[in-house]
Amino acid sequence: MLEIIKGRVDEFDIYLTGHIDFDNLWTLYEVYRELKKRGVNTYYPGLFWANWKEKGEIEYKIKNNAKILLIITQMISFGTSVDVGFFIHRKISGEDVRIIFCYTGPSYEFEHIKTHPVSLYIDCFTQDINDAVEKTLEFLSL
After folding, report:
1. Which residues lie below 8 Å from residue 77, measured CB to CB, with a gap of 6+?
2. Cα separations (Å) of 57 from 39, 50, 51, 99?
3. Exposure pattern of 25-56 as b/e (b: 16+ CB <10 Å)?
4. For residues 66 and 12, is the Cβ–Cβ distance under 8 A?
5. Greatest CA span in the chain, whole angstroms?
6. In angstroms, rounded to a whole number, what is the distance separating the alpha carbons of residues 51 and 29?
7. DSSP string spanning 18-44?
8. Residues facing 15 on adjacent strands
9. Could you write out the DSSP letters of every residue in 89-131?
């Protein structure tokens, strides 16, 4: 699997991520499977395992080519913030990329997240995973 992904880093439309724990990893897999079923090339961190350096280099290349960052999370985490910052930098640099933020945690936190200054760069906030998938397809014109 590692060699296949290495050869396809420029083919992923979506970089799907979130706070990675056992429960959320399954959720990410289900979203990955749904997008794949609809013909969308999607990468998520649970797709393969490698040493941290090799995985980081591959993920950097994928993030640098993906058109959409799709975050599904029930909590805010440093890794997710780094991914958002990476895509915001690409937006500011003039690239046509989108950020969809699906927060499945408490509603009061969701409202607070939407007031953060970087929220100006988020294309879609939602608390519904199915809505996040539909927005992703809409942004890809599918």
Report:
1. 18, 19
2. 25, 11, 10, 21
3. eebbeebbebbeeeebebbbbebbeeeeeeee
4. yes
5. 43
6. 21
7. ---SHHHHHHHHHHHHHHHHTT--EE-
8. 43, 69
9. HHHHTT---EEEEEE-S-HHHHHHHTTSGGGGG-SEEES-HHH
pTM score of the predicted model:
0.91
What per-residue confidence (pLDDT) applies to 4?
Answer: 84
Token pair, residue 55, equals 């995985």
Q: Which of 5, 14, 4, 10 minimizes the C-alpha distance to 87?
A: 14
10-residue block means of pLDDT along the chain (142 residues)? Answer: 87 90 81 95 88 92 96 78 92 96 90 88 95 97 83
Which burial class, exposed, middle or buried, applies to 128 when counting CB atoms under 10 A from its CB (0-12, 13-18, 19+)? exposed
Six token digits for residue 105: 């945690």
Q: How many whole angstroms separate alpha carbon 10 and alpha carbon 17?
A: 17
What pLDDT score does 79 carry?
63
Question: CA 94, CA 129: separation in Å to the nearest integer?
Answer: 28
* Strand ranges across the sheet with 124-126: 42-43, 14-17, 68-73, 98-103, 124-126
